[in-house]
Amino acid sequence: MEILSDELLLDAYQAAMQFNLEPEFIQLLAAEIKRRQISPDNFRRITA
């Protein structure tokens, strides 16, 4: 996960949500977003 830039991580999360991928994978991405303390505004932008 550390290889991904913040932008790519957010893109991966958005795509995982869009394509309804495995909930465990989505949770893994969400946990990494939280771990990196990515701005909630950016997080909210992709989940809206």
From TrEMBL:
<dbReference type="InterPro" id="IPR036916">
    <property type="entry name" value="Sda_sf"/>
</dbReference>
<keyword id="KW-0649">Protein kinase inhibitor</keyword>
<protein>
    <submittedName>
        <fullName>Sporulation histidine kinase inhibitor Sda</fullName>
    </submittedName>
</protein>
<dbReference type="Pfam" id="PF08970">
    <property type="entry name" value="Sda"/>
</dbReference>
<dbReference type="GO" id="GO:0004860">
    <property type="term" value="F:protein kinase inhibitor activity"/>
</dbReference>
<dbReference type="InterPro" id="IPR015064">
    <property type="entry name" value="Sda"/>
</dbReference>
